[in-house]
Structure formats: C-alpha cells, structure tokens
Amino acid sequence: MRIADQERDDVLLRRAGKGDEEAFTLLYRRHQAALYRFALRMSGNAWAAEEIVQDVFMTLMRDPKKYDPARGTLGGFLYGVTRNRVLKHLERTPQREVSLEEKNENGAGSGIVLLDSTTPAIQAEMRERVEQVWAAVLDLPAEFREAVVLCELEERSYEEAAEMIGCPIGTIRSRLHRGRALLMARLEILRDVPRPATLRPHASAAK
Amino acid sequence: MTCSEFEETGLDAERDASLGEAQRAAAVAHAASCPRCAALRDSWEATQMELRLLARATGTLDAPARVAMRLRQQFRTQYRTPRVRRTAVIAAWGLAAAAVLVGAVSWVKWRNAQQNPHNVAFKSGAPASSQGLPDQNPNPDPSLVADNELGNFTLLPGVLPAETDGSAILSVRMQRGTLGTLGLPVNEDRASEWIQVDLLVGNDGLPQAVRLPE
After folding, report:
1. Could you read off the pLDDT of A24-66 as tens digits, one per residue?
2. CA distance B45 to chain A (A)
3. Measured between beta carbons, which residues in chain B are less than 8 angstroms from residue A49?
4. Does A152 sit within 8 Å of B48, measured CB to CB?
5. pTM score, two decimals?
C-alpha cells in the first residue's frame, strides 16, 4: 500500500473505526480548523463552535459508517454535519445572546488575531472595526450569513458554496446579493465614524 | 445592463464563474456610466476589504486543545474499554474451563478410587517414627497401602470391628516398646528392638489395629 493511500481520509477513517487512535488524530488535525472557523464565524460564539466541532467528531467516532465515500469527500461530509449543528444552534439561539467580548470569558481573547498592526492604538482601532464587521455579519439571517461566510470569508467559489450547501448557484448568488445589501447598509452606518486609513479602499478602486 | 442587474450580478461579476465575458464587460461599462452603481461598487469594495480583515483575523484560529483531549479520551473509552473487557471475559472463561477440567479429573480419579480401592497406592514421605534412625529396612520407601481387609490384624484395646471400615494400612518401623503406647503388651527385654509393623489407621488418623508381619 502506498503512503498516499494510507493517508487518504477514507482509509484513515477505516483505521480509526478499528480503534486506531493515530488515524483518528490525523483526521481531526486535518479537518478541525476549517470546521471550527466556520462554526465560529457563523455563531460568533467560541464555546458553541468548540462544542459543535467536538460533537461532529464524536459523531464520526461513534458511527464512522455514516460517511459514504461514494457520496463525496469526508471534508464535505463533516462540513454538512457541522452546518446542521450550527443551524440547530442558531435556531435555539436566534438572537446573539452574548457579545463578542463576553464570549471570551475563558481569557483566550476575542479570538481575533491582528498580525500586522503597527501600534497599540491602530491595533485597538482595527480590533474594534473587525468586531463591528463581525457583529454585522452575525446580524444577517442564517442563510445569507452562510453564503457570506463561505464566499467572502472562506473565499470559496459560488460552485463550491452551492455544492456545500446543496443548492443551485442561482440561490447562492441571490443569498449573497441580499446578504451583501444588508451588510453594506449596516457597515455604511458604522463608517460614519472615521475609519483607519488601512481600511479605506484605494483611491483608484473608489473611482 | 440595468441597475438592478448590476446589483444582483455585476457587483461580484469577476468571481461569478457562471457569467460570461460579455456580462462582465457590461457590468464594468454600467458602473462607468452610472454614478449610483459606481458608488454601490465602491461601497461593496470597502465592505469586502473589511470582510477580508475579518477573514484574516479569524483565519488562523484552531479548535482549542481541550477538544482534542476530550476526543482522545472518548476514543480510548470507546475502543480500549471493550478490548480490556473482552480480554477479561476470555480470561474468566479460561479460568472457569480450567476449574471444570480440574474438577472433572479429580472426580474421575475419585470414582476410580471408589471402584478399585485395592489398586490405589500412593507414596508419602518417610514416617515420623523412622526419621533419624539407622536404615535397617531394605525398602527405603515406607508406603501407605489402602486395604480394607482386617485379616491378621489385632484390634487395639477399645476399638470395635465396625470402626475399621474405610481404614488404611500404614507400614512403619518402630521400636517394639512403642507398641506399649498403643495398649499392647510388650516384652521388656526386647523393647528396644526395631520391628516392622502394619497399622490400621482410621479415618480420624488414629491407629485402630496392628499387625506384626512374620
């Protein structure tokens, strides 16, 4: 058996199903980040995202046969399970019950990492702006938010997003259109406050 | 392209692979000629920049390490506990089978002993009465011989013939004077003489009859 075969998701999953902990750990490492980010961006709640990711992998651990390689990739399957969990979570908590600050009571920070902030003042300003944008995203209805998260934050193509959600491309386009309109309206209001120079569009792009 | 078409498809025309080149060109041309749509496009570009900032800010996040730890624990519970339990069950069944086998062999031996009492003979260590004494016996292994016959045995005082049922014969060497402790008359002149004696020993371990082989 070639190494590439050994490391394929379905092979790893089969090994994990027989009690191979290393194979399960590899699968977890391979997929956890994308699922966690999606859950976090959709819910705005680090605890909920953590629970959702854990729940998804528990499901995979308890019943690995739920995944059928003939129907798609394991990543797609896990994303589908995560999406269902996220939507259930959003149904239970239709309103954001905690603010972006409150959700980080474990001391881990807001989860936002600003890599290129030059000074503490700019860093604080950018953090505030990012939190405003995130809050605006979280205020979108779930289906619009999902389209925005997939296409704008995860930079997936319309086709990929449509395949992941399981809907036609036209639906994605429509949801994005409506999500964009709501998002722009919200952010335009916030932009009345002077924004840092780093966030302003280039002069050429503005013309 | 109309303003509503621009809003729906023109804003993100570059990324929408389902649009053709002509539609993309029409979107660009419309934005160039329509100030409202140009402003909308600028607003969207500003929003996209902010979204990219959010994407970058949250793009390096991983699930906390405690999730991996909990999953690992659960994995071990799910897969290792049954394995240990299976091993324990197999070991228990093995022990039970061994116990049954030992019991069966013991029972068969006991049955054989019951059916052929004359054939049962077993070795034992040197009798206490012969320890530390000069070896005058040509047979170095005194033996305990199971025998229910009472022929040539003299019952010891106080023993009834019925009490000798199930007794065993014990061949020992002893000084003749020791017979006195069993309640038998002893010739004092020959009290120190070593003799071979067969003792009929009861189930309680006490001698019940004695035989002096010729």
Report:
1. 999 999 999 999 999 999 998 889 999 999 999 999 998 888 8
2. 7
3. 63
4. yes
5. 0.61
Asked if the structure places residue A61 within a domain, the reply is yes
Domain final residue, candidates A107, A141, A172? A107
Same domain, A116 and A103: no
Domain boundary among A75, A107, A139: A107
- Cβ A183–B47 below 8 Å, yes or no? yes
Nearest CA among A112, A195, A43, A120 for reference residue B47:
A195
Q: Taking a C-beta distance cutoff of 8 angstroms, is the pair B208, B167 a contact?
A: yes
**Tokens found for residue B78:** 């799910």
In the three-class reduction of DSSP (H, G, I as helix; E, B as strand; rest coil), residue A87 is classed as: helix
Verify whether the Cβ–Cβ distance B17 to A159 is below 8 Å.
yes
Residue A79 near residue A59 (C-beta atoms within 8 A): no
pLDDT in tens, B30-76: 888 888 888 888 888 888 888 998 888 888 888 889 999 999 998 88
- Cα angle B24, B26, B28; round to 5: 70
Tens of pLDDT along B163-195?
Answer: 666 778 888 888 888 888 888 888 888 888 888
C-alpha dist (Å) from residue B99 to A96, B19, B91, B94, B105: 66, 81, 12, 9, 10
Residues A89 and A54 in one domain: yes
B184 and B151 co-located in one domain:
yes
The residue segments making up the domain with residue A35 are 1-107
A103: nearest Cα among B3, B98, B58: B58
